[in-house]
Amino acid sequence: MNNIVLFQELLCDNGKKVGIATLNSERSLNALSGEMIEALYPQLSSWHDDEDIAAVFLQGAGEKAFCAGGDIVNLYNAMKSHTGDYSPEVEEYFTKEYQLDYLIHTFNKPFIVWGTGIVMGGGLGMMVGASHKVVTETSRIAMPEISIGLYPDVGGTWFLNRMPDQCGLFLGLTGASINAADAKYTGMADFFILAEKKQALLDGLKTVNWGNTVALNHDKLSNLMHDLELVSNVKLPVSHVRAQSALIEKVMDFDNIADIVNAIVSAEVEDPWFNKAQKSLKHGSAVSGHLVYRQLNTGKNMSLVDCFRMELNLSVKCGQFGEFAEGVRALLIDKDYSPKWKYSSIADVDPAIIDWFFESKWQADEHPLAQLGS
C-alpha cells in the first residue's frame, strides 16, 4: 500500500515547513507494520537533512489510536514458519523498527508525537523518542508484552529505567495501562492538550517564527504547547501510578524477581487499577517476567545504542523460543485467552534459559545494529 503512511509538508508563515507523517491504518489501530517502517524511515531521514523543515509532527489516522503496537500477527506467521528455530523475518522487522526508534530519539529538530487514544508497544517506542510528547484526555498507554510472552522492547530498557521509584519495572512486569497524568508523571509525556485542540496546534505551528537554531526552535515549540495546555484548562485525571507510588515502592523493594512478583500479586489493596495489574502479572509469561527483571537491571547504565542492541538479541531469541508465538496465538489468533506457557510460575523457570536469552547471537562486528549511532 503506497498510502500506508501519509506525508505532507505544512508551509509556515516565515517560509519554513513542518513535516507531517500520518500512520494510515485505522482498522488495525495504526499497528506499526514493516511497510510503515519502510515508508517512515527514509522520509524522516530526508526531513532530518532538509534545512527547510523546521519540525516534524507524527500522528495516527483517526481518533482511536496513535499506534496500538507492532504488527505482531505478521510476526506470528513468520515464527510459525520457523517453529523452534531462528526467524530471519523477525530479525529484519525488529532491526528496522529499532533503527526508526533510534532516529526519532536522536532527531536533530523538534519532533512532535500526537499520542492520543491507544499508545502501546511499538507506538510507545516512537512516542518516547520524540522531543515533544503529547497526550490527550483519551490517551491509554501500556507496554503489555508480558501478556504475549515478549518483554518491553523498543527502548524500554532505556525509558523504563528512567522512571521514578521503581515504577518502570512495575509497569514492565504488569503491563499496567496508564493515563495522561501517569504519562506525565513517569516522563513518557511532556504536554497534555485536549484532543479537540489538535488543529489549533497545527495552526500554531504555522505561525511559529522558526529559525536555524535548533535549541531556540525547541523553546518556541515548547512555549506554543504550554500555551495550549493553559487554554485546555482541563484538570488531568488522577494518576494511578502516583496514587499508588508508596505501595509500588514497597512491593518492588526486593533484590530478586521471585520476591517482587510474590509481593505484587499478594498485595491486599482495593484499587481496580492495581488489581488489574496484579491479574495481568498472574496470567503473564513467567519467562517474560524474568526477562523484564534482568533486562532492566542489566541495562541500567547502558547507552541508548547498547539498549537497542541488547533488545534486538532478546527479540530474536523470543522469536525462536516459542513463548512469544504462543502468547500471540492465545490473544490474537485463536483468541482463547489461555496461553500454554512453558513454566507455571516465576520459581519454575530454569535460570539457564534466561542466561541463553542474554547470550549474544552475533559477534560484536556482525550485529545488525553494529553501525547504529556511528
Automatic annotation (TrEMBL):
GO terms for cellular component: cytosol. Gene3D superfamilies: 2-enoyl-CoA Hydratase, Chain A, domain 1. The keyword Hydrolase applies. GO terms for molecular function: 3-hydroxyisobutyryl-CoA hydrolase activity. GO terms for biological process: L-valine catabolic process. Its EC number is 3.1.2.4. The keyword rRNA-binding does not apply. It is an enzyme of class 3 (hydrolase). Keywords: Hydrolase. Residues 18-358 form the Enoyl-CoA hydratase/isomerase domain. It catalyses: 3-hydroxy-2-methylpropanoyl-CoA + H2O = 3-hydroxy-2-methylpropanoate + CoA + H(+). Pfam families: ECH_2. NCBIfam families: PRK05617.1. This is 3-hydroxyisobutyryl-CoA hydrolase.
